[in-house]
């Protein structure tokens, strides 16, 4: 459905008179055959379409009016109906609704008399165009639905698609009912696939409908994409109103998406198209007036003197009509100029708004980046300052724990060590999260690691919390997995410690399992599935959406409830390792956290990594002089006691 341009009503009667009186020399003779006349009619139809493209609707009426008489002469009902349809639509473009209705009614009566469904459908589509002009949108939609029903019976693919798009466009552009429009857009696409011969004709219409639907439903990204497709399809046709509409929608979509810089560039293109359109309209109108004046000034050879007075009278009438049409055209041009001036003023206001938004965005971006830098520096500094005294606290608590004279206070000292280690882990989590957000932790090591030893070390490091909650920790590693793999041991340990620590915290008198399965193995790479299962308190579906966020935590109280950083760190580390964490859980039945990870295979060694024993390390320091450098007296004392204990042992 193409909406018709607005024109002044008083031009209509003039055009009709002009169509009846103005004559054009025939290129056929009274002796011409039906075949020759048919060819002449089709030639006139092409000329009519060319005049419509120029906006010369009166000239188009003249060609079709001549075709009407010739079709009636040779008794061709189809050509007669086509000529009436073209005349009706030309009058409709000139706002002469009454005259358009007259020709369409004749086609409807002829179709009913002949019981011709195709002709009836074509006439109903023409009648629907009148309804849309009269703003009778509901009648327009119902009439197009009748066309769809008839077209299905005759398998008229062209009118099935046309009528469906008409209904969709009315719902979208006039009634703003996007959901109803979507039904007919989808139907039109189905018909287009069923009748592929029509595909090229409706490509731009489908893009337009998809774009308008997406924009009205708030999917501005999809709207932008489809408006872009319309622009590409109409590239080279810079005078097209559809191209101007598409660029306008493209600009609005960019503005809604906050792409102010891109919207500004689109605005400049749209502004250029408007200027070119105005220029082409002015040039074409001037050319049309000159052509008409030239035609009217051509002297015809007159063989019979008795016809001279009639010819002079006819030419005078034509010139009068031409003068009236020229005045009307001038008024239309002035109206168009006023429209473009107002539109340009609106676009200028939008441009200023876009520039302001862009400046605000850049200012906010700079402030955000500065705050991020300050945050990173602060967290790095405070973490370092906290870790220094914690080193002393952990070292001294360990010395006190081993002192025989304080054996009666081992339980308290054990709690002190746990609290200090917990605080150190918290600081490490904050520092790790800070590094991830600042982009400084993306470098991964690819060194040999023994997966079994890594998991067992995790078991030892979590011994206190495991015993505290009276839990059992079981480890199951599939035998097919190579003993020595290549990967980042530290980051994998961080992930498993966080997951296993959480399982131990929220499980009492239960069982926690660390399971590693082989999914697939290639020559230099394996894909493993890591699972941490528990039979603890479980997690609700609502909480499962929150626990992976920063400071996300269970709402249930727990003796070991933490800050909520652990799972967030796990999520971000796995994302950097091209993986992701998943959870399956039910309240009261425990939870399973799992992820898949690609690791390399160490082709140079199939044996486990050999570890230097603790005794071998300690004996290396016997008889040696050791220099301890530390600006903290407590830390000096702790380090000194560590080496002293090694030598004494």
TrEMBL record:
<keyword id="KW-0175">Coiled coil</keyword>
<keyword id="KW-0812">Transmembrane</keyword>
<feature type="domain" description="Histidine kinase">
    <location>
        <begin position="381"/>
        <end position="601"/>
    </location>
</feature>
<dbReference type="InterPro" id="IPR003594">
    <property type="entry name" value="HATPase_dom"/>
</dbReference>
<keyword id="KW-0597">Phosphoprotein</keyword>
<keyword id="KW-0472">Membrane</keyword>
<protein>
    <recommendedName>
        <fullName>histidine kinase</fullName>
        <ecNumber>2.7.13.3</ecNumber>
    </recommendedName>
</protein>
<dbReference type="Pfam" id="PF00512">
    <property type="entry name" value="HisKA"/>
</dbReference>
<keyword id="KW-1133">Transmembrane helix</keyword>
<dbReference type="InterPro" id="IPR004358">
    <property type="entry name" value="Sig_transdc_His_kin-like_C"/>
</dbReference>
<keyword id="KW-0418">Kinase</keyword>
<dbReference type="InterPro" id="IPR011990">
    <property type="entry name" value="TPR-like_helical_dom_sf"/>
</dbReference>
<dbReference type="InterPro" id="IPR005467">
    <property type="entry name" value="His_kinase_dom"/>
</dbReference>
<dbReference type="InterPro" id="IPR036890">
    <property type="entry name" value="HATPase_C_sf"/>
</dbReference>
<dbReference type="GO" id="GO:0016301">
    <property type="term" value="F:kinase activity"/>
</dbReference>
<dbReference type="Pfam" id="PF02518">
    <property type="entry name" value="HATPase_c"/>
</dbReference>
<feature type="coiled-coil region">
    <location>
        <begin position="290"/>
        <end position="317"/>
    </location>
</feature>
<feature type="transmembrane region" description="Helical">
    <location>
        <begin position="321"/>
        <end position="342"/>
    </location>
</feature>
<keyword id="KW-0808">Transferase</keyword>
<dbReference type="InterPro" id="IPR036097">
    <property type="entry name" value="HisK_dim/P_sf"/>
</dbReference>
<dbReference type="InterPro" id="IPR003661">
    <property type="entry name" value="HisK_dim/P_dom"/>
</dbReference>
């Amino acid at each position: 459905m193409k909406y018709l341009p607005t024109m002044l009503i008083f031009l209509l009667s003039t055009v009709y008179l002009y169509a009846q009186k103005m004559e054009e020399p025939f290129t056929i003779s009274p002796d011409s055959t039906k075949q020759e006349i048919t060819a002449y009619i089709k030639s006139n139809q092409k000329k009519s379409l060319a005049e419509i493209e120029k906006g010369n609707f009166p000239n188009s009426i003249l060609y079709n009016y001549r075709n009407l008489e010739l079709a009636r002469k040779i008794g061709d009902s189809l050509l007669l109906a086509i000529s009436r349809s073209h005349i009706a639509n030309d009058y409709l473009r000139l706002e002469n609704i009454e005259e358009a209705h007259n020709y369409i009614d004749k086609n409807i009566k002829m179709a009913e008399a002949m019981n011709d469904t195709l002709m009836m459908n074509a006439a109903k589509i023409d009648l629907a165009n009148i309804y849309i002009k009269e703003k009778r949108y509901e009648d327009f939609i119902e009439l197009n639905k009748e066309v769809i029903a008839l077209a299905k019976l005759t398998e008229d693919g062209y009118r099935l698609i046309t009528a469906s798009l008409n209904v969709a466009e009315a719902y979208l552009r006039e009634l703003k009912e996007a959901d109803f429009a979507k039904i007919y857009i989808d139907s039109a696409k189905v018909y287009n696939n069923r009748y592929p011969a029509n595909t090229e004709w409706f490509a731009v219409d489908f893009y337009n409908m998809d774009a308008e639907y997406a924009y009205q439903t708030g999917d501005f990204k999809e709207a932008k994409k489809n408006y872009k497709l319309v622009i590409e399809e109409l590239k080279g046709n810079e005078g097209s109103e559809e191209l101007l509409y598409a660029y306008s929608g493209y600009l609005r979509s960019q503005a809604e998406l906050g792409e102010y810089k891109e919207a500004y560039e689109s605005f400049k293109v749209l502004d250029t198209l408007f200027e070119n359109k105005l220029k082409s309209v002015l040039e074409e109108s001037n050319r049309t007036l000159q052509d008409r004046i030239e035609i009217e000034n051509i002297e015809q050879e007159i063989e019979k003197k008795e016809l001279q007075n009639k010819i002079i009278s006819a030419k005078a009438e034509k010139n009068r009509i031409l003068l009236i049409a020229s005045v009307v055209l001038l008024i239309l041009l002035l109206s168009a100029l006023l429209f473009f001036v107002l539109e340009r003023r609106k676009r200028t206001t939008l441009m200023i708004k876009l520039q302001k938004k862009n400046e605000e965005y850049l200012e906010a971006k700079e402030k955000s980046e500065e705050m991020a830098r300050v945050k990173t520096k602060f967290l790095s500094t405070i973490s370092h300052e906290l870790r220094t005294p914690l080193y002393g606290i952990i070292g001294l608590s360990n010395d006190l724990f081993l002192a025989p004279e304080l054996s009666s206070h081992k339980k308290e000292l054990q709690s002190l060590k746990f609290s200090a280690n917990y605080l150190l882990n918290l600081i490490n989590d904050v520092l790790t999260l800070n590094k991830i957000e600042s982009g400084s932790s993306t470098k991964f090591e690819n060194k040999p690691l023994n997966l079994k030893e890594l998991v067992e070390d995790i078991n030892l490091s979590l011994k206190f919390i495991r015993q505290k909650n009276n839990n059992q920790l079981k480890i199951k590693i599939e035998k097919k997995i190579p003993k020595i793999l290549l990967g980042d041991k530290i980051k994998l340990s961080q992930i498993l410690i966080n997951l296993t620590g959480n399982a131990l915290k929220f499980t009492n008198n239960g069982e926690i399992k660390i399971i590693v399965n082989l999914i697939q193995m290639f020559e230099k790479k394996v894909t493993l599935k890591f699972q941490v299962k528990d039979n603890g308190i479980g997690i609700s579906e609502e909480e499962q959406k929150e626990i992976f966020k920063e400071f996300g935590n269970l709402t249930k109280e727990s003796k070991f409830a933490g800050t909520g950083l652990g799972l967030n760190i796990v999520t971000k580390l796995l994302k950097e390792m091209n993986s992701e964490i998943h959870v399956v859980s039910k309240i009261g039945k425990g939870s399973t956290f799992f992820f898949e990870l690609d690791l390399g295979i160490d082709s140079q060694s199939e044996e486990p990594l050999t570890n230097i024993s603790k005794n071998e390390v300690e004996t290396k320091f016997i008889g040696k002089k050791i220099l301890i450098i530390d600006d903290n007296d407590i830390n000096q004392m702790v380090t000194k006691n560590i080496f002293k204990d090694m030598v004494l042992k």
